[in-house]
Amino acid sequence: MSEENKESKKYDLEERTYDFAKDCKNFLKRIDRSVHNLEYYKQLIRSSGSVAANMIEANENFSRNDFSHRIKICRKESKESRLWLRLVDVKDQLEGERAVLIQEATELMRIFGAILEKMKNN
Question: Dihedral of the CA atoms 94, 95, 96, 100 (nearest 10)?
């Protein structure tokens, strides 16, 4: 793979995780502010933002171990984001958007899992 392709793939996952965090934030702006939803709101903001932040850190490539550690955190935070998305109460008109975000969290979780599996085999 050329250096340009490596940079493009790295950027795409950074951009994808950024978009996920931004989309979660925009989704949460439209939910009811009940007591329990506020707690889920805070948790989802933290976990979705952490996916993006740790992806950026992983791409700094300080060491293979650091990269692996950051990717594990990304996977864990993707799983947590999925949980908070499932727990938040939403009106019917937001169900479709929530389903899309849950799907994205699941896909990100699988991507990070595949990266870790590939690292184990190399």
Answer: 100
